[in-house]
Fold this sequence. Notes:
Layout: H1 2-15, H2 17-31, H3 44-89, H4 95-99, H5 103-120, H6 128-162, E1 168-170, E2 174-176, H7 187-233, H8 248-258, E3 273-277, H9 283-291, E4 309-315, E5 320-323, E6 330-331, H10 335-352, E7 364-370, E8 376-380, H11 396-408, E9 414-420, H12 430-437, E10 444-449, H13 451-457, H14 462-468, E11 479-482, H15 494-507, H16 509-512, H17 523-563, H18 572-588, H19 595-626, H20 660-700, H21 710-723, H22 728-743, H23 750-779, H24 783-789, H25 795-810, H26 819-831, H27 838-863, H28 868-873, H29 882-925, H30 928-934, H31 938-966
Parallel strand pairs: 3-8, 3-9, 4-7, 9-10, 10-11
Antiparallel strand pairs: 1-2, 4-8, 5-6, 5-7
Helix pairs in contact: 1-2, 2-3, 7-15, 8-31, 17-31, 18-29, 19-20, 19-29, 20-21, 20-22, 20-29, 21-29, 22-29, 23-27, 23-29, 25-26, 25-27
Keywords: Apoptosis, Coiled coil, Disulfide bond, GTP-binding, Hydrolase, Lipid-binding, Membrane, Mitochondrion, Mitochondrion inner membrane, Nucleotide-binding, Transit peptide, Transmembrane, Transmembrane helix
Subcellular location: Mitochondrion inner membrane; Mitochondrion intermembrane space
GO cellular component, one term: microtubule
Amino acid sequence: MSRILNHRMRMSLKKTPSIVDQRAVAFTIWTGRSVLFNRPVPNHIPRRQYGMLIARAVRGVLKIRYLVLGGAVGGGMTLNKKYSEWKDGLPDMGWLNDMLPDNDQWDRFTTTLITAKDRIGDQLQIDPRLREAGRARAAELRDWLSQRYEDAVAAAAVNNTSIEPAPKIVNNLQSKPAPQTASARTAAEEAAAYEKRVHVLQEEVLALQARYQRELQRLEQENRELRQQNMLLRQGRQPTTKKMKRSLIDMYSSVLDELAGWESGEAGRLPRVVVVGDQSAGKTSVLEMIAQARIFPRGAGEMCTRAPVKVTLSEGPYHVAQFRDSSREFDLNKESDLADLRKEVELRMRNSVRGGRTVSSDVIAMSVRGPGLPRMVLVDLPGVISTQTVDMAADTREAIKQMTKQYMDNPNAIILCIQDGSVDAERSNVTDLVASCDPQGKRTIFVLTKVDLAEENLANPNRIRRILEGKLFPMKALGYYAVVTGRSRKDDSIQSIREYEERFFRSSKLFKEGLVAAGQVTTRNLSLGVADCFWRMVRDTVEQQADAFKAMRFNLETEWKNTFPRQRELDRDELFERARAELLDQSAELSAVPPPAWEQRLTAELWTSTHEKVFGGIYLPAAALAHDDVGRPKATQLKYKQTGSDRNPAIWIDPYDFDYNKFNTSVDIKLREWAESELAKQSIQAGRDALREEFIELLARSQDTDPIYEPVKRAAVEEALNRHQWEERAQDVLRVLQLNALQDRCVRSRGEWDAAVALMETALKEKRDEVQRELRDMTGPGFRERWLRWTSTTEEQHRRAEVRTELERLGSCRPSLAYDEVVAVRDNLRRRGVEVDNEYIRETWKPVYLNNFLSRAQSRANDCKKSFYLYSQQNGAEKECCEVVMFWRVQAALRTTANALRQQISNREAARLDRDLREVLDEMAADPELKKKLLSGRRVELAEELKRVRQVQEKLEEFIEALNKEK
């Protein structure tokens, strides 16, 4: 068979040598063997085989290229992702962009330095000792880090050879050794060695942390010094006009200030750190350690914090403090400024608890800026007490509890619960309160203070470990911290307290024995943890609060458009300013009142205030003195004139003696006494009343005024008029004018005479109407009125009517009754069955006599209307109308007084009243409670809410924009 195949192969080779050769070569290259009966491949075949091998190698290299390229791309993406995660984990250093100058400023700064160097020359030299000290410190730090690195490598090598698995850390608080290995050491020796290494590493970590903090403080101090030198170099240059950019925390604090009145509603739920704890637990000390300054006063065994204190911490080049409502900055590096700051805080707290209160809900807002300070807002509340003392208000304990709950009930508030470590945990009052407000502990941070005293007093340090693990108290928390805030000395500085804290924790059993983790101690770690939690909560909730205020604004604007469609949205301050402007414009119109109008009003006011004195003090006493019954005809001394019936009153016998000389003399004396003692003062009061009425009428005549302004105007005008005092010298001027007017007894014209008669008739009619009303009240309704109006008299009124009837029958004309006349009236009444005493009769006689006297005086005034001719012919000697002359004298004095008062008002008093009005308006503008009382109603409240919501929304949007830029 093989022979046949060989033969056929030879024949095919002879027939088609080219095709066969090609196939044979390909087979040979592929297999490495000859197709011609396993013959050796010719010499040119191996060369081709080597070429193919090279091609295959090149192809493999190309594959490796793609693998390398793909791995590089994937690794780059992974590295980029790791870098992004690492970058997000770094602290926010965006504030450096605002603090450090840009390239142009650096160029100008370097140019200025070079120029200064050329000018100064060798005068400005760096101290070589500082340079050498810096180099030595850097070399020392470098050697120390190298030594630590070598020790760590050696320890790792020993661990790798002796212990197989790494130690497991449980809860960052307690370390457990690895399981037993196959080495020659026993389990006890391995555990002891492991614990020893852990203690050594913990001490090194604490020392490294303390050294890092000191280096950081040194760098901060050097930074402050460099900035001061920079400012000294820049003295004499034009200051830059670039506005300082507000920090995020300042913007956030201003939003909280706007929400100060909304603490109890859904609004005002923005995050803040609420510092709560028992009294004297160390709340204020923790806050001072975070703020790095002793800014609060100390109480010697008594309550110190009496009102909430909102402290805004932020970064800044200098360590300063400032109150929200004050422009003064307190330098916290100066002890004098610190003392002034503590006095100011104490003064504000005492002012907030006036009126017998012990604590107040009024917030004292202040800001503290400084290098390295964490950015957050803290509210220090009064400490929770368990017992009230006798010098406290009755509701102090409950008021503190309610205030603390109100702040902690905010779902976005971070509760910084302070617990005194030097006392028994069972004595704590605040832990149960915190647990009731935050049962899950999602926003609570627990702080154990005075750990140094706790370590000295506690026999079982494991109790502190249980507290910091959250296993002793029923409350839960996000984190647990242990701090030392002093050694019970008031004069210790923050730096000395911090150094003492670091030394204590380096040598403390708590840390050496693994009871406390490194991240749970020192106030610096506490402040960093609280600030991180604060900003995380701010970023999570600020968008929701902005949306809530946007919806609130939409609802309020819709209500305004539907309720007050054609009115502007004026808040309380704007409404007050509008009312103030209108009131001052109306006050200026007082000077435009015509003189006749002023004199008419003043005359009316003068008569209103003096007519009682004219009648009761001058006219009636003078008329009573002028009556004289001596020498009266016998007919006039009869008790009754026969009229045919005892029931009808007797007719008065009119002709009787009237001594006109006595009347005129008495009138002269009484008018002069009145002018010297009372008239000027009464005139000033009448002028004030006229000014008041004219001002009020001006307000009432305003047509375009808004009714909402009226309460403000009325209150301001009343207060200004009450304060307004007439000039003292005006009273003396009026007295002189009035005395001169009353001394004149000569009526010069018929017009003056008629005016005096009209005044007399009007006055007599008013007085008689008043007397008749008094008589009607005494004696009851008359016969006609009883029948027509179905009224009846009382028993007392019936008795008075009987006495009046008997007195009118008596016919006496004297102001007072004689004894025999009283007896005669009493006997006549007894015979008619009416029993009265003498005093009762005399009391009834006064209005009866006055009524009849005024009736006769009216008749005489009517008769005197046409007597001016006779009076003028006798040159004033006519005595029958002396009463008219008296009224003319009074009228002339009042007219002269009115003219003088009008001049005083126009020249002086209107301007002085306007000045008083401006002062009252200024005081009202500074009193928000009074404005709230005077300007009330839904219109004002809705405008106020709209204004506040808009302000808060704008500040929130500004803050969110800045926050997104910082991200």
